[in-house]
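pls design
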C-alpha cells in the first residue's frame, strides 16, 4: 500500500457546510497539508488526552509544521467526565494564551470525548473557529465525528449542553486503531453494525462475512466498511440535520442502552456494548410486537455474538428499567419513539409506552446477562 495515501474520501453534504472525510491507513503524517487546505489556518491547537497524544501527537505536529502551521498541544484528562464546562473554560484560557484567533484551527485528536469537547470549544470560542476531527477510536470514526453534534455533559446528565457544528475536515487514520484495546474496537463495531441494520442489508451481509477482518483492522476492507458506515450516518444526518425525523433511527438499540447505562451509573458496559444489548433486545421486541419479519432478530443477535459483543440484558428489576426509560418521570403515560427493526436494513420509529416496550417478564427468560440465550 502506498504510504500516506488516503484509501477513501467521503463528502458530507450539509448545505454550504460540506466537508470531506478522508479515510486511510498510516496517513497521520499527511494530515498537516490537508488541515491547512481545509481550514486556511496558520496555527493549530491540538486537543487530546495523554495516552493518545503520547503516541500520535508528534507525527501530527511534524506534519502540521511541514505544512507551515504553528501548533500547540492542549491536554485534557482522559474519560467521559472530562467533557464538562470546567474543561471547556480551561481550553478557552489556553487558546487565549496561545493567541488563538479565527485563523487558528482546533484539532481534536482522540476519541469521542475529545471530539465532543474540542468541537464545543471550537464552536463557541470567538463564536466559532475552524474545527478538524482526527478520531482515534472506531466509535469516534463511525459515529461521534460524523454528524456535527458537539457538546459537554452537565452533572445532571450527559450531552445536555452543545451545538451543531460541522468540522472542515475529518481525517481518519485506521492505523491509529492498532493501539486501541480490542474491547473498544468491538464497541465501535456495534455502532457500525447499527448503521447497516437500520439502513443497508448489503452492508449487514458484509459484516456477517467480514466483521473479524474489521476487528483485525485489515486496511482496505476496514476503510471500505468504515466509509459505507459513515456514509449512512452522513446521509441520515444530512436529510435531517437537526434531528426531527429520520435521524431518530440512529437511536436504534439506544432506548434500552441508555437505561442500562443509567442503571449501571455509567460503569460496567461500554456504550457500544450497551447498544449491542439494546439492539438485540429491540429486534426481539420488534418481532414479538409484530413489527418485524421473523428471523431478523436472531440474525442480528448472531452477528453481534460472533463479533464478541454482549446481547444479554443486565439484571435489574423491570421497575428500575421502566423508571430509567421514562423521559418525563412524572408522566407515566408518555410515549417514547422506539426504533423497531422491520427487517435487516430497514427500521422505523414507533411511539410506544415504556410498559409496552418491556415485556411482562423482563429480562425475558434466556436473555438475562449470564444466561445463555
Ligand atoms: N457527537 C456525537 O454524535 C457522538 C456520537 C456518539 C458518541 N459520542 C460521544 O463520544 C464519547 C465516547 O467516545 P469514545 O468511545 O471514543 O470514548 P473516549 O473518547 O473516552 O475513548 C475511549 C478510550 O480510548 C482511549 N483511546 C482513544 N484513542 C486511542 C487509541 N488510538 N489507542 C489507544 N487508546 C485510545 C481514550 O484515551 C479513552 O480512554 C461519549 O462522550 C459520547 O457521548 C458523541
Ligand atoms: Zn450510540
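designed seq:
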Amino acid at each position: 500500500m502506498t504510504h500516506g495515501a488516503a484509501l477513501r474520501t467521503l463528502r458530507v453534504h450539509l448545505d454550504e457546510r460540506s466537508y470531506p472525510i478522508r479515510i486511510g491507513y498510516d496517513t497521520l503524517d499527511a494530515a498537516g497539508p490537508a488541515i491547512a487546505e481545509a481550514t486556511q489556518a496558520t496555527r493549530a491547537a491540538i486537543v487530546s488526552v495523554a495516552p493518545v497524544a503520547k503516541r500520535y501527537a508528534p507525527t501530527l505536529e511534524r506534519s502540521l509544521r511541514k505544512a507551515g502551521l504553528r501548533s500547540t498541544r492542549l491536554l485534557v484528562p482522559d474519560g467521559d467526565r472530562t467533557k464538562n464546562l470546567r474543561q471547556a473554560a480551561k481550553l478557552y484560557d489556553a487558546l487565549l494564551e496561545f493567541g488563538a484567533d479565527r485563523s487558528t484551527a482546533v484539532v481534536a485528536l482522540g476519541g469521542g470525548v475529545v471530539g465532543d469537547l474540542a468541537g464545543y470549544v471550537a464552536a463557541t470560542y470567538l463564536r466559532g473557529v475552524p474545527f478538524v476531527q482526527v478520531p482515534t477510536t472506531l466509535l469516534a470514526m463511525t459515529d461521534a465525528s460524523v454528524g456535527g453534534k458537539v457538546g459537554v455533559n452537565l452533572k445532571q446528565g450527559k450531552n445536555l449542553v452543545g451545538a451543531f457544528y460541522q468540522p472542515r475536515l475529518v481525517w481518519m487514520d485506521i492505523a491509529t486503531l492498532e493501539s486501541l484495546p480490542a474491547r473498544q474496537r468491538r464497541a465501535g463495531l456495534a455502532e457500525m453494525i447499527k448503521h447497516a441494520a437500520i439502513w443497508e442489508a448489503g452492508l449487514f451481509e458484509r459484516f456477517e462475512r467480514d466483521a473479524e477482518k474489521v476487528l483485525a483492522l485489515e486496511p482496505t476492507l476496514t476503510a471500505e466498511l468504515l466509509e459505507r458506515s459513515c456514509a449512512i450516518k452522513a446521509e441520515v444526518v444530512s436529510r435531517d440535520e437537526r434531528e426531527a425525523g429520520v435521524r431518530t433511527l440512529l437511536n436504534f438499540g439506544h432506548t434500552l442502552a441508555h437505561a442500562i447505562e443509567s442503571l449501571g451509573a455509567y460503569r460496567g458496559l461500554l456504550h457500544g456494548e450497551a447498544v449491542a444489548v439494546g439492539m438485540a433486545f429491540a429486534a426481539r421486541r420488534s418481532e414479538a410486537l409484530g413489527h418485524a419479519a421473523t428471523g431478523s432478530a436472531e440474525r442480528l443477535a448472531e452477528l453481534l455474538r460472533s463479533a464478541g459483543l454482549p446481547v444479554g440484558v443486565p439484571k435489574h428489576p423491570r421497575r428500575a428499567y421502566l423508571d430509567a426509560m421514562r423521559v418525563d418521570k412524572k408522566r407515566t403515560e408518555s410515549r417514547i419513539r422506539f426504533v423497531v427493526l422491520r427487517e435487516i436494513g430497514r427500521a422505523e420509529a414507533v411511539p410506544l409506552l415504556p410498559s409496552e416496550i418491556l415485556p411482562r417478564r423482563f429480562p425475558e427468560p434466556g436473555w438475562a446477562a449470564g444466561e445463555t440465550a
